[in-house]
Design goal:
Blueprint (H helix, E strand, L loop, with lengths): L1 E6 L10 H21 L5 E11 L6 E2 L4 H6 L4 E3 L9 H4 L1 E3 H24 L3 E13 H4 L12 E10 L7 H14 L1 H7 L5 E9 L5 E9 L1
Parallel strand pairs: 4-5
Antiparallel strand pairs: 1-9, 2-3, 2-6, 6-7, 8-9
Helix pairs in contact: 4-6
Length: 220
């Protein structure tokens, strides 16, 4: 369901620097789009994130490819993935939102696993959590209208080591997996699509000095 609201017709004005930014974006993305058109497979990528577990606390430390960029940045800034014309994260400190989604999944799943393991008295000495997500940048950049813009597949894996001398009980490990899947908020959000409402509102001032605005809302 979508709704469009406008308070008088919104006057289109160019933001300072907007024209040059648009030109720079077209310049960066143009060759990439042409490459994806001529070589569709080059648009396919698997983003990865990982985290580590230890016996000291119910936490999960993110160890993904952008970990250093996050550590060095004063705040997290999302930007374009290099395959969409953006700079490398190590240089700019800007993170691809797809990577951030996988990092959120790794973090939530890792903490949930440690919490459940503690409750079940499964002593985890150390472990690794990995998430991979497949993207087709032909869809992200609109090169192929039939290609999806979102992840087409996500894989979540845990590799853990128990305390020395502790026997691995298959029934407990199965319960650990099931409860982690059941109570991981991010995983459940991805697996079971919630009701989503998207809203965009723009405000501006016409030459007459009257404020004008336009809004678009859609329930997915």
């Amino acid at each position: 369901m979508s709704h469009n609201h406008s308070h008088e017709a919104a006057t289109q004005t160019s933001a300072p620097g907007g024209s040059s930014q648009a030109t720079n974006l077209r310049t960066a993305q143009g060759p990439i789009k042409e490459q994806y058109k001529s070589s569709p497979d080059s648009a396919l990528v698997t983003l990865c994130s990982s985290g580590s577990l230890d016996s000291a606390s119910i936490t999960c430390a993110i160890n993904g490819p952008n970990a250093n960029a996050v550590k060095d940045a004063h705040k997290k800034v999302a930007g374009l993935h290099p395959m969409a014309g953006g700079p490398e994260a190590e240089v700019s400190g800007e993170l691809c939102s797809g990577d951030m989604l996988l990092e959120a999944l790794v973090a939530c799943a890792g903490v949930t696993l440690k919490s459940v393991a503690t409750a079940l008295q499964v002593p985890i000495r150390k472990g690794e959590v990995r998430a991979e997500g497949d993207l087709d940048f032909k869809g992200v950049l609109g090169v192929d209208k039939n290609a999806p813009a979102g992840f087409t597949g996500i894989r979540l894996a845990f590799d853990v080591e128990l305390d020395e001398g502790v026997e691995v009980e298959e029934a407990k490990i199965e319960k650990l997996g099931k409860l982690t899947e059941r109570y991981c908020t991010v995983l459940q959000t991805i697996a079971k699509k919630p009701e989503i409402v998207v809203r965009v509102e723009a405000k501006g001032e016409a030459e007459s000095g009257i404020e004008r605005s336009a809004a678009w809302v859609e329930k997915l």
